[in-house]
Structures are given as C-alpha cells and as structure tokens.
Amino acid sequence: MYSKKVFQALYTIIFCVSVIGQAWSQSPAEIRGTVRASDGMPLPAVNVSIKGKSVGTVTDFDGNYTIRAQAGDFLVFSSLGFETVEKEVSGQSVLDVTLEEDVEQLSEVVVVGYGTQKKSDLTGAVSSLKAKDFNPGSNVSVDQMIQGRVSGVQVSQTSSEPGGGMSIRIRGASSVNAGNEPLYVIDGFPIDNSPMLAGGGAAGTAVNNNPRNPLNSLNPNDIESIEILKDASATAIYGSRGANGVILITTKRGSAQRISVNYDAYIGVQSVAKKMDLLSAGQYMHGINGISQDGGGTIIFTDEDREAIGNGVDWQDKIYRSAPVHSQNLSVSGGDDKTTFYTSFNYFDQQGIIDNSGIQKYIGRINLTRKLHDKIDFGINLTTSLVDDNNSVDGMSTNEDAGPIYTALLYDPTAPVYNDDGSFNQSSNLTINNPVSLIKGVSSKSKTNRTFGNVFFEYKITDALKTRLNFGSDRQTSRRDLYNSTLTFRGDAAGGIANISTLERSNVLLEYTVSYTRAFNENHSIDALGGVTYQKFNTRSFSGNITGFPSDDLGTDNLSLGDTNNDNLYSNHEENSLISYLGRINYQLYGKYLFTATLRADGSSRFGDNNKFGYFPSLALAWKLTEEEFVPEVFSNLKLRASWGQTGNQEISNYAALSTYESSTTAIINDGAVTSLRPSRIANPDLKWETTEQYNIGVDAGLWKGRLTGALDYFVKNTSDVLLNQPLPQSTGYSTILSNIGEVRNSGIEAQLSAVLVESDDFTWNTSVNFSRIRNKVTDLGEIGDIYTGSVANVGNTSILKEGHPAFSYYGYVVTGIFQENDDIAQSPQPNSQPGYPVFRDINGDGSITTADQTIIGDPYPDFTYGIHSSLNYKDFQLDVFFQGQHGGDLLNINVIESMYPGNFRRNRLAGQVLDRWTPENPSARWPSGVEPSSYGGGKVNTLVLQDATYFRLKNIQLSYTLRPEKIVDSARFYIAGQNLFTRTDYTGFDPEANSFGRSNARVDYSSYPLARTWMFGVNLSF
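-> structure tokens emitted (1023 positions)
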C-alpha cells in the first residue's frame, strides 16, 4: 500500500514537471540581435515579425532589434531593397542577420520631385544620401552634412564662424546677377532659402557681412535622406527654380511596429586650425627699422626700445580661444496600424573660437501621419526653432570700421593691450582699433524664430489613381541688435552707435496633384503626375540707427537716449508670387526601356508684362542593359541614361521689371522742407527668367551583386538670357536697364564609385570615391563688352566677365620679377621705379604700364574636386575616415594685399613678406622691398597676391563602439570624432574655401573667420 502511494506521488510530480517544462519551453523568450547589409553597415527600419502572427518590431538606427518569440517560431526580416530572410528560433537569445541586396529592387527607393521612384527606374541624374552617408560631427546645418559627399556638388563654407554662410554649386555657376544656389524642398515644401540677417547697418560697427545660413533652423538629426537632383530631367518639374539644381530633404517618420526612443549627445572642444604667420615683435621692430632705413629714414626702435618691449603681444592669441561645442537630441517615434509619429527636440550650443561669437539653437519637430479612412491619409510635418546668434566679428570693413580679425593681423605687436590705468591702449601710430577693445566694445546679437511645415491630405480614388492636397507655411521673424561702444574709435567719436534691425519673412504654399500608376501587363507600366501649385512670398524689414548716448550701459535697450536729431530710419516691404502647372509621365517597356517626359509652366510676378509665363520641358530615356542576355552575369546593374531639358532661374530682386523711385533733393515749400522723388530705374516689360538648357549622358553600373557600384555622367549646361545691366544712351535719363542678353556655359564630368573591399563575418571594409571636373565659360555678353566686378575697399575691382573666359576671372597685372640695382629702369615701362620694386608685364607693348596692361590672371574654379570615404567594421567597432579636397582654382588673398600695400607704415605684416623682402643683400627675394609701396605702379590685384587654393583635407574621422546591454537600453554607441584635423595646402590664408563675398561667384578672402579644429566625444542611446 505504501509503495503504491509513493509511486502515485512520484508519477504526479513527474507529470507536473513535464507539463511545466513543456509550458516553459513554449513561452516566449526575448530575442535580440543586429541586422546588417552585405557591406557590414547596420540597417535601420528593417521590419522584424513572427511568421503567421501579428507580432513585430523594427530595427533602430544602429540596426538593433528586440522581440519576444518561442522555439519553433520563424522570424521574418524584410526591408525595401533587400531580399527577405526567414530564421528559425531554436533556443538562442541572440540572432544576428545579414540581408543581401535585392537586385530586382536595386537597393532603394529614392525621393524625386512630387513623388518617389525605384532607383533602378531613374532616368535622370539623381544622387541619394541616407543617414549613414552624412558627415559626422558638429554639423550646424544640412549643407555641412553633405560637403564632399556627392560628385558634381561643390559645398563651400564661405565663413567658418558658427552659423556662418554656406554656398552650394550644383554643376557649376550659371548666373551673373541672379541666384546660383539650389532650391531646397523639405518634405515636399519648397522653402525660402534667402540668407538670414547678417551684420551691417550701424555705421562704424564691426560686424560680419557674410550672411547667416538659412538652414540653421533645421535639425540635422531629423533628416532621413537627402536627394540631389542634378540634370534637367530631374529638375524640370520645378521649372523656373530648377536651373541651379534641387535638394530634396526628407525627415524621419515613425514606425507602426513599436515605440522607439533615441538620445544622442556629444561634447567637444574647438581650437583654431591655422594661425597667420605674422611678424613677431622682434621681427617687426627689425623689419620696420630696415624698411625705414632703406627708404632714407631713421630707425624707429632703438636697442633700448627693443629690450624694453621684449616679446611684445601676439594679437591673434588675444582674440582666439578654445571653445566648447555640445549638442543634445531626443527623439521619440512609433505608432500603430493607423497612426505613426516622430517627434524630436534638439539643443545645440557652439561657441566661436574668437571671443564674442557663437550660436545657440533650440529646435523642435513633429511628424504625424494618420489614416482617416481606408482611402484618406492625413499628415503633418512641422518644425519650430529659436536661433540665438552672436556674430560681432569682422566682415570686409577697414580702418576704424574693421573688426577684431582684421585688426589682429595688422596691429602693432609692440603695443600693449592695456594702459597702466587698465583702459585699452589705442596706438597713436595707427587708425585701427585695439583688437581686444573690439571684442569687448562691439556687440551684435540676433534672434530668429522660424516655424515651417506642411499639412497634406491624400485621397485614393482607385488603386491606380490618387490625389493629394498640400498646404505649406514658413514664417520667420528676426531681430538683430548692434552696439558700438565708446571703447572703440568710431564709437567714442559718436558717443556710441546703436542699430536695431528686424526682418519678417513668410511664404505660403497651396498645391494640388493627381497621380496615376498602373501596370497594364508584364510588359507595360505607366506613372503619371499632374498638378497646380501657388506660392506667395512676403518680406518686411526695418532698421533704426542712432548715435550720441550718455552712457554705454543700456546698449540698444533705449534708443531714445541717443541724439534723436541724428537718427536714420529705413523700412521695406516686398511681395512676389508664383503660380505653376506641372505634369510628368514615366513609361516602362518590357521592364528595360524607360521614358520620362516633364513639362512645367511657371508664372512669376517678378518678370515683365510681356513674359509672365515660362515653359520648361524635359525628355529622358534609359536602357537597363542587365535585362539583356548579352550582358555578362557579373553585372548586377548596368543602365545607360540620356536626358535633355530646359529649366529656369527667377532668383532676382522683386520689382526689377518695374519703374522705381528714390528720394531726391529737398525743396522749401510754404516754409517747410519737402523731399522730392525721382525715377531710379526704367521699366523693362520684356524682362524674364534665365533659361538653362542641359544635356546629360550617364551610366550606372553594379558588379558582383553590388560589391562594386558606380555612376559616370557627362553634361553640358548652356544658360541663355542671362540677366545683365545693359548700358543706355544718356538721353534716356538712365544709365542701365536690366536685360536678358548674356550666355554662360558649364560642362563637365562627374563620377561616383563605391566598393566593398573586404567582407567577412567579423570584418568589413568599404570605401567610396567621388570626382568632379567642371568647366565654366562666358560665351556671350551681347554688346556690353567686358564687365568689371568684385569691388573691395582699398583695392577696387578684382574680377571680370569676358567672353571666352570663366565668369568672374581675376583681372589684374602680371608680376614678372623685381627690379635689381643694375637694371636699366629709366628705359623700362616703369621709369619711376626703384630697385626692389615689382616688375609688371607690358601686355600691350606700348612701353608704359597702364590699365591697358591688366589681363586675366586666374579664375576661382577648381580643376577638379573629390571626396574619399572609408568605413572599417570589426565586430562592434567602426572606424570612418573622410577626406575631401580640390585641385586648382585661385583665391585673391586681400590680407596679402593689405600686408604688401599697408595703409599705415606701422601696421604689422605677414612674416614672409618682410623676412624675404628685396634688399641689395637679398636680390633673389620673392617679395618687393616694402619701401614706398604706393609708388610701385601697376595695381594691387596682381599675380603676387593671387594664390593657388588647392587643398587636401582630413575632414572627418570617427571611431565608435556599440554595446548591446541586456536590460533597459537596446543599444549604446560611444564614439570619438575629429573634424578638420589636417589640411595640406600652399594657401597662406585661414581657409582656401573662404569667400568674404558670401554666396557670390566672385571670390576673395578678406579677414575670413578662421577654420576650427574640433575633437568630440558622443553617445547614441536607443531604447
């Protein structure tokens, strides 16, 4: 009996344990892992689901996922452009997966104008960058993220100041007086890319003339992809705004699979990447004495002076500093089967490497989509931002108006910073300010609030036909406060100078499109688009300037304290609008022949009554050779493309076609002063857009299942009806009229190549290279003749437009050597010269040096540009290295001119010009004697001061390590990064990319803001 009870008890225990074990084995367990592409790069947004169940998730930015599944389940990994993979769960807790590229889908869908297309179906020249392709580091704006990454696209940081201007040229510069920047379209909304408030306005206030980047208000962390439309087939859908190329920016979206939280943060330190090589105090005293004595004068500094002064002051060190930069970004995304959302907040703070400069940004975004009905989708994309900008440094002013960079390069190194009483020392030998007094005595701060976004409704009429209504709004308000205190020469003379400027910009968009997509059978398919858009722009500005304050304490807080009898007020209001009709047809035949036709009609209020509407067509075709049997199987992709089209450029000032008036003389009527008006411009009813006709031939190729991919394009862009100021007879009462009379040609080759060099389980190495060679030429100027331009204070015109030569070529004198003591100077074309003076070439051979001996001495366009990127992955470590550069191209260094032709004898100079100046003991010197430079003859723009802007730069390097904790955090990625660590160049200025003219095609470097070298440490956390 007892044994039977024991047996029954044991049986019960065994049965219960087996049931519990079976239940445990079938209960879901947490599975985690990483999904990567064949090149080893992590894949975000991959759908991970359990086959046959409504359970799923999506990979985060680093390709990581977490899901609960039980033994016997099959996990399905799918992503657009990749082959779907199924993996069985068999008790493992970690399951890593590699997805192979789906050759049929050709890896991705890209955004095009007013829609999307498979990359394999593109007929135009389109470059696509995803988040993994962007430049890492402290990117203030979108432009910096793509610099050097795309062939045919030259991105230049015209000012390295935090928040400073950027310039983008897509396939060269096509215009003279109209804009050359591309059109930006964010989530389908074409935005106003006009520069934000810059410096200027208050007389004598040292500020930055370089415009602030209008894309500072967009958070780079929010960007999912960037597509760059380059040829006319891709850009014609944007008509009169497509001539300079189009940049399409798509921001991130939520996923219906799970809630994702991402936190990104980094902190870094910046230092000046390069200092100008100036004379030290000892070299300065020796050099000044030598030049004075060579010119017949006495010594300036005695031995006692030199001993007392000692090392003097390095003024560059007084204005430079190590500056922090940091950023924090938090985003939350997710949704369900009807609603998805993405929201983020970014705080960015970058202090400048020059004291009293920097930028702070606060940016919030929300993207929301909602399925209101089976046939109706609703969405909203909204960004709001506050940008605090401190930009109280430099520009292109001189002497009393100059800023700290200019004065630091020229200030007497023997002069102390402070007087004995603690006040700033202002040298009696100079008319420029003590650089530190400008740092402390000038304030320029601006605040910009901007909110932009769009709301859309999409209605699916049938499976093939749908309509879309899109409404966009962009509102921006800015205020800049400038104050020049009595610590400076000009501020002291005027009793303080205050200026307040405000700017209000707004634009609204109303857009309606209809699209039709249908595959008739396996051999024919069509994708058609039609629509109408209306966009209106509104700008208001105001500035007030006043002097004579009893104290500097309040700055611009109470202008009424100034001398109200000596104020200066200005206001302006402008509007313009654009109405457009557009259509596009994509037709595919037999899966291998592709045809695209586009037509857009644009009506712009900016142009004359006789030319309100323009029509911009394009045609393109492509042949998928990989669909042909004669193409070897080694090719995973091979496609030929050809396109033709016309696009326009309407980026000129408002009302340029109309008669305008300006204030004239003041008359006394009834004992009162009355200001009269006079015509300032004659109307031109025939004024219209510039038209760019472009031809493009290209080939896309992929080999060995995408291990090697590339694209090669040749293009020709002919821009006609270029807007130029045509001279008028004096009898008309006007000097010029803006007319369409010029032609400019750009042509070139661009190439892009990517390769997976090594691929194994633990290690991958992939690299990409891009190359561009573009030629610019003015082909017609009508009857105007040569046009001189690029005027700079104390220098004059620097460049010229001349038929048969690149636009804005440098125009000046050729220096062939230096006069020696035994030369027959009296019989030369420069009979009044002295030994040690430069020898100018007598171009026309008339025996004298005159303005007729000026000639083209260089041009600002590089022979070619390039970028090289490599990524190495070993297990959880990743190293990214990016180089960029250009070969050729010239840059006029105005600081070299200021040193060679100093406005005051006691100004400092570049060390090389004095240490290697001509003397009887140094006859083979590179530089003239420095004695009486105003008597050199010729002109200040010459081959001695024009410098080669070739450079090779280590732009970015980043080493990262990814952890995958088991709790709380899905992944944690830590990295250290460096920017602008190394530059190889013969250019003597701060940066061969600089342009003190901002976005202009005419380029000079005039006390540009120094380039910063940056080291950063950061972390990315995914929850």
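Confidence is low (pLDDT under 50) at residues 1-7, 9-26, 198-210.
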